[in-house]
Design a protein that fits this description.
With 303 residues, the protein is an alpha/beta fold. The protein folds into 3 domains: 3-82, Arc Repressor Mutant, subunit A (Orthogonal Bundle); 85-160 and 268-298, D-Maltodextrin-Binding Protein, domain 2 (3-Layer(aba) Sandwich); 165-264, D-Maltodextrin-Binding Protein, domain 2 (3-Layer(aba) Sandwich), CATH 3.40.190.290. The protein is 47% helix and 23% strand. The protein has helices spanning 3-15, 18-25, 29-43, 59-84, 99-116, 129-138, 199-211, 224-233, 242-250, 280-298, and strands at residues 48-50, 55-57, 91-97, 120-126, 143-148, 158-163, 165-170, 180-182, 190-193, 216-220, 237-241, 254-260, 266-272. A 6-stranded mixed β-sheet has the order 8-12-7-11-9-10. β1 (48-50) and β2 (55-57) form a beta hairpin. α1 crosses α3 and α2 (18-25) crosses α3.
Amino acid sequence: MNLESLKLFVQLAELGSMTKVAFAQDCIQSVISRRVTALERECGAKLFYRTGRGVALTDFAETMLPRIKALLAEAEQISKEMKAGAGIPIGEVRIGLLPSLSTPTIQTLFRRTHERFPGVLLHIFEGSNGQIDEWLNSGRVDIGILFRYGGSVANQEQVLGVVDTYLVGRAGDRLTSKPTIEFDKLSDVPLVLPGAPNGLRLTLEQFSKRAHINLRIVMEADSLPLQKEFAASGCAYAVLGGHAISREVNAGILQASRIIDAKLGRTVVLATTTQRPLSHAGREVGKELRLILDDLFANKTFK
């Protein structure tokens, strides 16, 4: 089974029409039909159903599609690295990270990789912890930067540091006027929090039950800018990491108190996909990410 046949399979799965594939490959539809028939014969299984609008994947083909995409991506990367020669990294590196970790990280990463590895293309995905875990497991991203709660870190994950958690309000707010605040002071305070499932939300709910306090959630918002906007307006308080609010606090837009008496610190980890080995470019980008985050923690940008 050659790579061209597998590329045809993926292209047809994405376009859903032999006519469209034939047009894209500048050939007649009967040629595509014969190639698909030959591929199905070689696989020993039916891959496509013919429909009134084109073709659709069979259940078997649906299960094989992610693996074939990963195989083709790896083959393309190997080809690029062989052509590059002299061990120079080249190709696409896909990174998934939380929005709160993106701003202080990605611009520096781009500058460094652009200067050192001009043949590397960064593809950035922002998402929640759960989404990033899913992307890593499916191979959609090569590297993930995300939070772990309660000190639970997998063996293959690299710990980069721990960020503290703050109660965030508007500038001049009385409740957040001191550097620290006890966790039980959050009882009945109007809060804007991410919707479940969310690691921080789950941790807050667990600690509130243990402390016998009521978490008064007045709004759910998965958007970090929206959480900060509501906190700045005085409508509700947000619960965020110090790194996510440092600019607004320094500018006098937000005010924050570090929450104590509860283990709400979040461990920042670097994880890699288990679907395939990291390419040379992926390994180099991973090294740069670790150095950047080490500097941010050392300079207390992340706290």
